[in-house]
Amino acid sequence: MTREVNITRMDAFTYRESIKSGDSVMLVPVGSVEQHGAHMPLGVDTMLSTKIAELTAARIDALVGPAVSVGYKSQQRSGGGNHIVGSFGFDADTVVGVCRTLVRELSRHGVKKVVFVNGHYENYQFIYEGVDLALRDLAGSSQGASQVMMLSYWDFVTPQVIARLYPDGFPGWDVEHGGVMETSLMLEYFPELVWMDRLIDHAAAELPLYDLLPADASLTPESGCLSSGKVSTAQKGQILAESIMAGMVDAISSRF
After folding, report:
1. What pLDDT band is residue 144 in, cutting at 50, 70 and 90?
2. Mean pLDDT, to the nearest integer, of 29-47?
């Protein structure tokens, strides 16, 4: 029987037993509710960050905490834009506050080693701010010091894997919204939620080097995606996931 790593599927007594050593590492997924075109569901970012966190935790005897399932506002140059119906964007102070509270609560439980696993491009700086404020809150407290790592899982895809999976050129992670990486990972882990027959194929979006508010909707492709996932496969998802998990295992193990 596979060991359960996600604490939201544990009872309270099992959870307490699993962290009683005081040396547990807790991975916290951070995603969003955001449109990903016609071929994937709104929950892609949360689903993938949670799955990757769970698979990584199983390799290093860590745990996975409650996911932050709604993130910062989708931005036009990295997620199509919050003007598109289907994207739910929280204000920055909400994302900061949730991350800040999670660090404090985990510390109160006795968990001092935390890894935020980001799955939504726009979230990162607000996770960082929440963690920084939480550590200031905890400084000098009787709960003891916590150490927190923050990462975005796609940063662990190696250059070799990028060259292999993007032979015609890599558009960049910001433009990979709804593209090959996310679609391939979804095909590997959640194939029943990918509708390839509905995928809208188009060239990678060409966006200006500035942001504009209110957003000019004409700049975002009709699909809502910023590149095409047409050549995505579950096999590519396996290759991507292995690269990501290997890098995350190495980073987390080397620090914690």
Report:
1. low
2. 98
Establish whether 132 is a catalytic residue. no
Catalytic residue among 39, 45, 54, 188: 45
Q: Which residue is catalytic, options 39, 54, 122, 176?
A: 122
**Residue tagged 């940063």 (tokens):** 155
Query: The pTM is what?
Result: 0.95
Q: Which of 162, 236, 186, 233 is nearest to 52 (CA)?
A: 186
Most confident of 8-12, 172-176, 201-205: 8-12
pLDDT tens for 98-137 read 999 999 999 999 999 999 999 999 999 999 999 999 999 9
The catalytically annotated residue of 39, 54, 176, 182 is 182
Q: How far apart are the first and last CA of the chain?
A: 26
For 147, other C-beta atoms within 10 Å of its C-beta total 12
17 is catalytic: no
Distance in angstroms (rounded) separating the CA atoms of residues 139 and 132: 11
Angle CA(129)–CA(251)–CA(77) in degrees, nearest 5? 50
Report d(CA 160, CA 211) in Å as an integer.
Answer: 32
- Whether 45 is a known active-site residue: answer yes
Active site residue 192: no
DSSP string, 131-183: HHHHHHHHTT-TT---EEEEEEGGGGS-HHHHHHH-TT----GGG-TTSHHHH
pLDDT, position 142:
64
Catalytic residue among 39, 54, 176, 177: 177
User: What integer best gives the mean pLDDT of the chain?
Assistant: 95
User: Any catalytic annotation for residue 120?
Assistant: yes
Judged on CB neighbours under 10 Å (0-12, 13-18, 19+), 196 is middle
Q: Measure the CA–CA gap between 69 and 190, rounded to whole angstroms.
A: 17
Clarify whether 122 is annotated catalytic: yes
